[in-house]
Design brief:
The chain is mainly alpha-helical. About 55% of the residues lie in helices and about 0% in strands. The model has no long low-confidence stretch (mean pLDDT about 75).
């Protein structure tokens, strides 16, 4: 579970750090200096590659968690499974003592 949470947070952070495709259009109007923090092409390929790696880790870990979660799971049971089996009637044994009954109240 830790790997799943870590990889998902890393993917979110890496996607938010990356520049969008529309940011290149701003370079033509004088905003080209804002994208030179990581170099001309270094940030795009490095961040894209890291995002792809974390996405692959996330997908493989998701498949592994699903496999491990269903490996030892019991088959689901419904109420129809319980109703389908008839109950055994209770048959008194001959050696059991009879249950005493209280006498009916006498009329006056």
């Amino acid at each position: 579970m830790f790997i799943q949470v870590f990889s998902s947070v890393a993917i979110i952070a890496l996607v938010l750090i990356q520049r969008g495709k529309g940011a290149d259009a701003g370079a033509g109007f004088g905003a080209g200096a804002s994208g030179t923090v990581f170099g001309a092409r270094g940030a795009r390929t490095g961040l894209s590659r890291a995002t792809a790696i974390f996405a692959a880790v996330f997908m493989l870990n998701s498949l592994a968690l699903v496999y491990l979660g269903t490996k030892n799971a019991a088959p689901p049971r419904t109420i129809l499974d319980e109703v389908g089996t008839p109950a055994q009637p209770v048959v008194p044994t001959p050696d059991a003592a009879p249950v005493p009954q209280s006498p009916a109240p006498a009329e006056q």
